[in-house]
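Protein 1 of 2
SEQ + STRUCT:
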Amino acid sequence: MNIEIIPVSTRILTEKDDIAEAIYEYAKDKVGKDDLVCTAESVVAITQHQFVRPEELTISPLAELCCRFIPDYGSLASPHGMQSLMNREGEYRVAFALFCGFLARLIGIRGLFYKWGGEQAALIDDVTGTMPPFDKCIVYGPNNPDAVAENIKEKMGCYAAMIADVNDLKRSRVVGVSKGLNGELAAKLLIDNPFGNASEKTPICIIKNYRKYQEEHK
């Protein structure tokens, strides 16, 4: 069946907002009982005050060293991005994961750093990674994303809800889902990144009639 994805415009959401209430405010007339409501993970994190300003960080020599081993396009490639991860997951854990990940890449095994470096390793957005004025902040991944997704589902009366980390590099990652949702199936529908977290201010999207789509792909 054909799937329709509808981006939803909002104002700039801040740490003063509740994400479920904000979605209800802007999408209540657009969501049906068979729909899937998707939200960008960075916006959920911002509403939870899960961010830090670079000037609030003290950069260690270890963070200065480790960030040099991250590709330039990565959020951890800056000293501030790497330090923010070390502050959450521990300096030595991150350094050890990076070292082991580097050795593993030499024999063709990828992804170990993000597996062993802690939950935040794959979720942190460095500056310019999200909407203004938070493009000047480092944004962590959200707390309790599955519980947040379940709360959104209940608030909206929809089939399911999902928090996703999607970018323009054709990367779509499940961060949190409500009960019964096949997150990996849904994430494939977001591969072209319908979210607009910057000037577009469309951090929410609705996948219409998703219930039938999931049932057909069991």
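Protein 2 of 2
SEQ + STRUCT:
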Amino acid sequence: MTQPYVKQTIENHIAYIEFFHPAHNSLPGDVLAELAQTITDAGNNDEVKVLVLKSGGDRTFCAGASFKELIQINDSETGMKFFSGFANVINAMRKCPKFVIGRIQGKTVGGGVGLASATDYCMASKFASIKLSELNVGIGPFVVGPAVERKIGLSAMSQIAIDANSFYSADWAKNKGLFTGVYESKEALDYAVKTLAENLCSYNPEAMKEMKKVFWTGTENWDEMLLERAKISGRLVLSDFTKEALKGFK
């Protein structure tokens, strides 16, 4: 696989939505936009009862923002638009009237942790360590922070945001509430995801829709709040500190 993509496969009323990028599944703006739209469309598709969010490849679920695009940002408006990409995907999952299951097969960094946190039920392999690395380049997890905090709490989110150099194990993430289960292999993970999704398809869709509303109560302002957070990141990415730090990724 050499070309980035977002693809959807519907099987037994389950929409498997998969994204991929050859740079460790890092996400540029066009892939983020397509991912948000695909989630929204699946949520509106009467054939679909449950969504599964996954990524291609074996080693990395998502490496976060595309450093190639970050390096090219030269004004705050472009910066805000780029970081709004993650906000739009998070909000698409939040507003989707169906449960979104996360399938996290490998390491996930920065924005990827936000995507995992925005799923309704997240399952992982033992290789799925997590890291919020944004502070390393002078930004901070402003856009994904609310989703991460909602899942694991302010204390744990603050810990991994401040300790931006460290990966935290899948078991740590499970103990904090991000992952509901950690599996020994990708095959075991896929079986568990498929089993759960198929079970959910046998439940009352209206009941699940109402449950999801309850689960996300208190996030009604996220359309505006995450946009404001994107503005902060868009401004900070122009700082001398961040420009210098990003040179190391060229």
